[in-house]
Amino acid sequence: MSAEAADPAAVPRRRSRPRIDLRRLGRVALLGPVSRDRLPDAIGHVADAHRAHHPDADLAILHRAYVLAESSHRGQMRKSGEPYITHPLAVTLILAELGAETTTLTASLLHDTVEDTEVTLDQVREQFGEEVRYLVDGVTKLEKVDYGAAAEPETFRKMLVATGNDVRVMSIKLADRLHNMRTLTVMRPEKQARIAKVTRDVLIPLAERLGVQALKTELEDLVFAILDPEEYEDTRALIAAATGDADPLAAIADSVRATLREAGISAEVLIRPRHFVSVHRVRRKRGELRPTDFGRLLVLVAEDADCYAVLGELHTCFTPVISEFKDFIAAPKFNLYQSLHTAVVGPEGAVAEVLIRTHRMHKVAEAGVVALGNPYAHDGGATPQQAEPSDERADPTRPGWLSRLLDWQESATDPDTFWTTLRADLAQDREITVFRTDGGTLGLPAGASCVDAAYAQHGERAHACIGARVNGRLATLSTVLSDGDTVQLLLAQDTASGPSPEWLEHARTPGARIAITGWLSAHPDDRPGPDGAAAEGRTEPAGDDARSDDARSDGPHSAAPVRTRSGGQAANVVVDAPEATTRLAGCCTPVPPDEVIGFVVRGGAVTVHRQECPSVARMREIGRAPVAARWKDEDGRDDSAACRVTLVAESFGRPRLLADLTEAIATADAAIVSATVEPPSEQRVRHTYTLQLPDAAGLPALMRAMREVAGVYDVSRAQHPAATG
Q1: How many CB atoms lie within 10 A of CB 279?
Q2: Bridge pairing between strands 486-491 and 431-436
Q3: Which of helix, strand or coil describes residue 247?
Q4: Distance CA 675, CA 476 (A)
Q5: Does residue 176 or residue 405 have the better pLDDT?
Q6: Residue 647 near residue 691 (C-beta atoms within 8 A)
Q7: Backbone angles phi, psi at 15, to 5 degrees
Q8: What is this structure's pTM?
Q9: What residues have CB less than 8 Å from 407, skipping those under 6 apart?
Q10: Residue of 7, 116, 247, 327 marked active site
Q11: Which helix (H) or strand (E) is 196 found in, with range?
């Protein structure tokens, strides 16, 4: 399982267990199973590796699985010329060395039988149980991959779905890919490159996210050798040259052992060689490699508290490189990884990087979800078919990123969109946790904004989101969230609201981007029209921005506008074009009892403006005929009193001005659809609000309440000129 598998002779292997001779095992496999009183040699190596992690494991089921696999695959050969049984044996041995439990190993031995032999899933169920059948079925669906551009997305979509129900499916798939990559040289160069690229773009990031570092590092080196052979050879030569020299890490390791021994701390200090890609990255980062850059010190202890005791001794007795310190025990990585990272200066001035972890942490760091065994054992071996009706089993190995992938992949109907989005999402290597005001949490990728939080919490209801409070303060939807933030999403009362294209600039999660893109595609006419109003009964607020704080002198806060349907308002207006769609103009937001007039715009809709709106003169100038418009009377109204209006507040800048204004608006029972605060000019600040009022008769009182806010010297109806294109 070492990272140097691409060239075993280049550097010593990390593990003491020698590489199994698969050709010899193939010859053993051809002879068939031996007597019943002992395991065949071919499966004996798997049994030894398995017992090293699980001393009490029942090997009888492995014996039976091997017998079925060997008899089923007998006569089949791999392209490398080896008997086919060597492949499931190698895959199973990889997983056994990582510490996989018996059920996973059984399914691994059988993972190709249903696809390539006469064995059926019903037979697997009868002989090995439903759980093994489920795992074999999950892996079978991923076999015989056509690596053409059209086939890849759907194949990996199936992989995600299967993985989401049981992560052990992905464990088997990763081990399967590793063995195939080890033997890839028998294929044509172009096919090698194609498979290596898919491995690099999807499977390696998945291995990273599942925490299976032992698989990930070797896959990285094998891909490196295929896709960048020149750099690989240079790196291999550097490692080979350094192997022949005296290792400076050895002297530092001796000093560390002596220091910990004197402190009474029981610890195991090892030298951990870097794999090829790691050396290559360090070389690119530093330009020139130091003698200690070819490896790191690994300190293994028994308890979590011992990790910090070791750290204290190292930082006391050696000169620490503070910039290299990271605590992944207190704040584990999203893939279960835990360790303390530091660097110290040794006796001769050499700098050594040090990893400090417990033996348990080390096992999880190497094997990730594989080290956790059967995540469903507490359910009494419940299978997906026996789970709760929601089919959601408590799974400690299914982190938030996997749940999000499973959610958004259902919405990505287009294969190209799915493939592009999958690769982009897997490229995210850090997660943050934000808290909801109801006590729940949201797991989001680093760099996520309030837009992402809205869709993560509310799904399609987030289309109506108009803003947020982050840590109790008003914030724009574009605000980037930090780990530990508390976020409250604010939704418009108008359930027909929808996002604007600008939201895509702030969305980082695939779920948010797919939902926004889907809504915009389904509402192609709901875009701002040339008359200043939005098409299909939508209005574009006067301002695009919303402030997350009081007015400040450091410029406006970038925001994403929200556009809201005004179909309900338009129902209050009667125009002399009965069949036409009617809407209220966003440039002047007319309300009763304003004098109004309408104009026919693109698509045959009638947009209604206030008579004094500058757009009216522009419409007349370009030859658009006016359409008579009037408000419905009391008897004809259906909630006609409700209205939307845009107000402009002129004020002097002061702390908490925005908070006091929004409180005055809320007290008047008005809902803020959007808001913008322009940069202060000579201590004066201009606020623009688009508001939804329950009754137009309350508008004068609202404007008076806003004028009474300290610092506000004028409040007026908005008058924006509209485009006339």
Answers
A1: 23
A2: parallel
A3: coil
A4: 10
A5: 176
A6: yes
A7: -85, 150
A8: 0.59
A9: 511
A10: 116
A11: helix 189-198
Q: Which of 265, 266, 285 is nearest to 274 (CA)?
A: 285
Q: In what order do the strands lie in the sheet with 441-445?
A: 441-445, 431-436, 486-491, 465-470, 473-475
Distance CA 655, CA 553 (A): 12
More confident residue, 557 or 597: 597
Q: Which of 7, 48, 115, 201 is catalytic?
A: 115
Mean pLDDT value of segment 310-315: 94
DSSP 660-701: HHHHHHHHTTPEEEEEEEPPPBTTEEEEEEEEEES-GGGHHH
Amino acid at 299: V
Pull the structure tokens for residue 611: 């008579």
Please answer whether residues 629 and 574 qualify as being in contact, where contact means their C-beta atoms are separated by less than 8 angstroms.
yes
Judge whether 116 counts as a catalytic residue. Answer: yes
- DSSP annotation of 480: B
* CA angle at 322 for the pair 320 and 326, rounded to the nearest 5°: 110
Query: For 460, phi and psi rounded to 5 degrees?
Result: -70, -20
Least confident of 195-199, 511-515, 685-689: 511-515
Chain segment 422-443, per-residue pLDDT in tens:
666 666 656 777 888 888 888 7
Give the Cα separation of 7 and 193 in Å (integer).
Answer: 18
Q: Which residue has the tokens 């889907």?
A: 518
Higher pLDDT, 176 or 146: 176
CB atoms within 10 A of CB 198: 17
Best CA proximity match to 584, nearest among 621, 614, 545, 540: 540
Q: Output the six-digit token pair for 320.
A: 């620490």
Find the mean pLDDT for residues 611-632: 82
Mean pLDDT of the chain: 75
Secondary structure of residue 11 in the 3-state scheme: coil
- The pLDDT, as a whole number, for residue 498 is 77
Say what angle helices 86-98 and 213-227 make with each other, to 10 degrees: 130
- Residue 308: both structure tokens together: 């910090």
User: Which of the two residues, 392 and 57, has the higher pLDDT score?
Assistant: 57
How long is the chain?
A: 725
- Sign for the pseudo-dihedral over CA of 412, 418, 420, 424: positive
Over residues 498-515, the pLDDT tens digits come to 788 888 888 888 778 878
pLDDT tens digit sequence for 212-223: 899 999 999 999
